[in-house]
Amino acid sequence: MRIEIDEKVFELMLEYEQIKKRIRLIGIQLNVDYEKQIPVFLGVLNGSFVFLGDLIKEIDIPSEVTFVKVSSYEGDKSTGRVKTEIGLQMSLKNRDVIIIEDIVDSGKTLDFILNMVQSEQPASVKVCTLLVKPQSLQKEFPEIEYVGFEIPDEFVVGYGLDYNGLGRNLKDIYRAI
Ligand code: IMP
Ligand code: MG
């Protein structure tokens, strides 16, 4: 199935049902791994809101949710400069933090977020990302513990991910062609 967003053509890559199945499994893993803690889910806006919305419903242990907002992308290219739009809204000192990302591409955004979180002296930090593009990652992140899907180095849209601000509402994930 093909769709057009802002004059760019995309084709179906991951169906919602497949995404949901994967999220259920990640949820089970998180419930086990954090059974004895009260983790803080730190969503990275804008992209992660759909993923976190579905993931949090699979979590059955006491937990908190908070958000930060950063930006680096213009159109389908990363500018490489990461800016804080909304900073941390709570102390993460001695907390077990799970950073929730929609996608890790070059890793520059994640690097920036990790620095922000580490400076708060949390008890632990792990990363849970729906998508990762291993071929474009510029460094290794031992913190990445939970990954939905590894995808090739292609631009994707839908399920929270945007192209020029559009397409976040799409239920499935599409790749640019
Ligand atoms: P990075 O800093 O290069 O890792 O880029 C990470 C951020 O860029 C993500 O949080 C997304 O907001 C955005 N991004 C990276 N790849 C894509 C994509 O394929 N589609 C939409 N947004 C993307
Ligand atoms: Mg993002």
Describe it for me?
- By secondary structure, the protein is of the alpha/beta class.
- It contains three helices and ten strands, in the order E-E-H-E-H-E-E-E-H-E-E-E-E.
- It has helices at residues 16-33, 49-56, 108-118, and strands at residues 2-5, 8-14, 40-45, 64-74, 77-86, 96-104, 124-132, 144-150, 156-157, 173-176.
- Strands 5-4-3-6-7-8 form a six-stranded mixed β-sheet, with helices on both faces. The chain has a four-stranded antiparallel β-sheet with strand order 1-2-10-9.
- The N and C termini lie close together (12 Å).
- The relative contact order is 0.21.
- The model has no long low-confidence stretch (mean pLDDT 95).
- The chain binds inosinic acid and magnesium ion.
- Magnesium ion binds next to loops.
